[in-house]
Amino acid sequence: MSQNILVIKLGALGDFIQAGGAFSAIRAHHNRASITLLTSMPFAEFSAKSPWFNEVWVDKRPKIIDVVSWFGFRARLRDGGFQRVYDLQTSDRSNLYFKLFWPNKAPEWSGIARGCSHPHSNSNRNSMHTIDRQAEQLVMGGLAHPPNPDFSWVNGDISRFQIRNPYALLVPGGAAHRPAKRWPIEYFKKLASLLEREGIQPIVIGTLAEAEIGDKITDDLEEGYNLAGQTSLEELFVLSRRATYAIGNDNGPMHLFSAQGCPSVVLYSAASDPTLCAQRGSKVTILRRQDLATLYVEDVARVLWNTQSA
Predict the structure, then answer these.
(1) Using CA atoms in the order 34, 136, 281, 5, what is the torsion angle rounded to 10 degrees?
(2) Does position 211 have pLDDT exceeding 60, yes or no?
(3) Mean pLDDT across the chain, nearest whole number?
(4) pLDDT of res. 308
(5) Total domain count, the chain
(6) Mean pLDDT (whole number) for 283-297
(7) How many other C-beta atoms are found inside a 10 Å radius of the C-beta of residue 279?
(8) In the predicted model, is pLDDT for residue 162 greater than 90?
(9) Are 179 and 299 within one domain?
(10) Distance in Å from the first CA to the final CA of the chain
(11) What is the pLDDT of residue 310?
């Protein structure tokens, strides 16, 4: 009898990328099961193309007072016929989803919800890196240790962009409410100029809201290219496979680029802890300063040139 499995992963881009190995491990363990992913809208279409899931549900995040939506979501969970749930979000919200099965018996549940069948029972879990925490959670649930994330299945067409080789990806954005995580724009601008002088085309990546930042970085350059707000998730994967470097703050695209094996330099301030969330990959360098204003362009450039000569 085929199993029905539910995986919950709602988070931001970096969180989603870091769950790639866990997704692979779940699919390998339940190779004949029908696996459903419950995720956020930005990742629904992308996830549906993956080899990991048979179906993708979008979490519409109803407000607490929206009783009709909650009853509808509860009915959908119960009618899914799930034998096991892997809660990779492990948040207050996803713990609440476990309770929605009451008074019926909940399916087997890997996560941290009180009373679940396969708890991640490590009291130090919040001090672990995201990837290590998810790996341990799955191993405690009886799965093999997850492999490194493999996104080789992702395809995209970047022929519409005015790109020449070699090029470097600059990612100056990040959470708007956490400005301390951002390297100064004038530093990115100076670095872009240095790259162009070395014959490397600087390409700015970011959201539409960060397009103005991209313009400030590239406006004085002959070949600088601002792609902020213009790229799909698939196109970012293809861009990273061909890039000479990626340089950016602690943000989602840098997780993607690092996981692809792109030579990446990630800039950290005291506002985030690489021990818990650092980008991982075969060619990642983390540079951290208490205040990113004290991380100078020459320091970053030195790492890039050393990477190129290695």
Answers:
(1) 10
(2) yes
(3) 94
(4) 65
(5) 2
(6) 96
(7) 27
(8) no
(9) yes
(10) 53
(11) 54
Is the pLDDT at 287 greater than 90? The verdict is yes
Q: How many CB atoms lie within 10 A of CB 35?
A: 22
Q: Are residues 194 and 305 in the same domain?
A: yes
Looking at the structure, do residues 13 and 134 belong to the same domain, yes or no?
A: yes
DSSP single-letter state for residue 18: H
Q: Has residue 1 got a pLDDT over 90?
A: no
- Residues 180, 182, 187, 189: what is their CA dihedral angle, to the nearest 10 degrees? -140
Please tell me the distance from the alpha carbon of residue 46 to that of residue 92, in angstroms, as a whole number.
25
Same-domain check for residues 231 and 282? yes
Same domain assignment for residues 171 and 248: yes
The answer as to whether 162 is a domain residue is no
Q: Tell whether 124 and 206 lie within a shared domain.
A: no
Would you say residue 157 lies in a domain?
A: no
3-state secondary structure of 118: strand
Counting other chains too, the contacts that 153-160 makes at CB distance below 8 Å and 24 or more residues apart are 153/49, 153/50, 153/51, 154/49, 154/233, 154/234, 154/237, 154/238, 155/234, 155/238, 156/232, 156/234, 156/235, 156/236, 156/237, 156/238, 157/235, 157/238, 158/235, 158/238, 158/239
Helix segments in 173-231, DSSP class H: 185-197, 211-218
Query: How confident is residue 11, by pLDDT bands cut at 50, 70 and 90?
Result: confident
Contacts of 166 (CB under 8 A, 6+ apart): 199, 200, 201, 244
> Does 290 reside within a domain?
yes
The answer on 180 and 305 residing in a single domain is: yes
**Residue 70, domain extent:** 4-140
What number is the average pLDDT over the span 90-114?
A: 95
| Same domain, residue pair 107 and 180 | no
Q: How far is CA 158 from CA 42, 71, 130, 154, 241, in A?
A: 20, 43, 31, 13, 12
Closest CA to 6 of 114, 103, 116, 92: 116
Q: What is the CATH number of the domain that holds 217?
A: 3.40.50.2000
Average pLDDT value for residue range 195-199? 96
For residue 154, being part of any structural domain is answered with: no
